[in-house]
């Protein structure tokens, strides 16, 4: 098997897995589902990724890194306001999770398991030392907020992640379908920055 064939097969597996995981969710997806979508045999998936769990983790870690690659230039742009940074990053964040709806569950499980290998852990210094972080700290220094700025970051993350954590139940009970949930998250792209602006008094 040539190196080019290896890359091609691996990418086909990842592309198929992303689509099936997004459509059916991690728990309902089987290795055979992914193999059928990729038009390969189950043994090939086991050869490249060993298990469904490892394939899922690989895709989620790629997703996290992809998000960081997008937001890092935004967070360090000294020519944009705090509100503009939040507006852009919230949009990127929601789009990324819409592509991988099981992403919040993966994050929660990894954090609870004490994982130190997640890209979010390795990039924590990037966040702490960013221009965005300096702007947040300035809010406290200038008296615009009377609480620790980390609460603002937690608020943003929570307002994005929690709807996705409840998504399976919402869809299962028939309260919303996938298209309606998608539209709700498009609304939140606009609402979250507005809510944060009110909290920050800017």
From TrEMBL:
Pfam families: TetR_N. The keyword DNA-binding applies. Residues 30-49 bind DNA. The keyword Methyltransferase does not apply. Keywords: DNA-binding. GO terms for molecular function: DNA binding. Signal peptide: none annotated. This is TetR family transcriptional regulator. It comes from Mucilaginibacter frigoritolerans.
